[in-house]
Design a protein that fits this description.
This protein has two domains: about 130 residues, Orthogonal Bundle (Endonuclease Iii, domain 2), CATH 1.10.1670; about 100 residues, Endonuclease III, domain 1, CATH 1.10.340.30. The protein contains 13 helices and no strands. α5 packs across α6. The N terminus is likely disordered.
């Protein structure tokens, strides 16, 4: 089953037109971009993002109220022991490393930043348990500084839409920042995540449900999808003939 002309519009539009149309689609679907992780200040956002590594936002939001009721700032956090923090955050996974990181970064914030979360990605990346993506999320969502954190959803969709070569998240971030207007980075980061979860998942993907991929999807990806669907149909027909 080959890709038909209606399945992609990449050959008939420029890259700029494609990018603008994708932005318009995302803004139409998600005019509001609420931060998925519940928080009350930059510190609680930092902790929530750290906890979200290999954990769903929903699970993090279930766990953090108990933690933040005891400590919503670094001064209160260091009054807790690492085992106490670990016991609370255990449902988020990786609790031994995450609890130690939370405790240690709280000490660093007090000793080096007077208890205030720094507003630079470079400073945040020096904190225990804080990588580039976490730092980018914090500066974007806590301080409104333009950043483009790339998670698995963004990496997957940027590749599917032919906006990056998909080699790694670092390249995907560079491509996103090059293609999208800087003033839209913070909203687009969330809009693409929301869209990926709702219309363009890694598993259970349905081409007819994903208008952006249907219009602008990478030819190799769509052809692979159509071949897989054709194989499923043949398998069902074969099973029916046996019965």
């Amino acid at each position: 089953m080959a890709l038909d002309e209606s399945a992609t519009a990449t050959a008939s539009v420029s890259k700029a037109e494609k990018v603008n149309d994708i932005i318009a689609t995302l803004e139409r679907l998600y005019p509001e971009t609420p931060v998925p992780l519940d928080h009350t200040n930059p510190f609680t956002l930092l902790i929530a993002v750290l906890l979200s590594a290999q954990c769903t936002d929903e699970r993090v939001n279930q766990v953090t109220p108990a933690l933040f009721a005891l400590a919503d700032n670094p001064f209160d956090m260091i009054r807790l022991s690492v085992p106490e923090i670990k016991a609370i955050i255990r449902p988020c996974g990786l609790s031994p490393k995450k609890s130690q990181a939370i405790y240690d970064l709280s000490h660093i914030l007090i000793n080096e930043y007077e208890g205030v979360v720094p507003e630079s990605i470079e400073a945040l990346e020096t904190l225990p348990g804080v990588g580039h993506k976490t730092a980018s999320v914090v500066v974007a969502q806590a301080f409104g500084i333009p950043a483009f954190p790339v998670d698995t959803h963004i990496h997957r969709l940027m590749y599917r839409w032919g906006l990056t070569n998909g080699k790694n998240v670092e390249q995907t971030e560079k491509d996103a920042k090059r293609l999208f207007p800087r003033e839209k980075w913070n909203a687009l980061h969330l809009q693409i995540i929301f869209y990926g979860r709702e219309y363009c998942p890694a598993r259970g993907f349905v081409l007819d449900n994903c208008e952006i991929t249907k219009k602008y999807g990478r030819r190799t990806f769509i052809n692979q999808y159509l071949k897989a669907q054709e194989a499923k149909i043949k398998k069902v027909k074969k099973a029916k003939t046996k019965t």
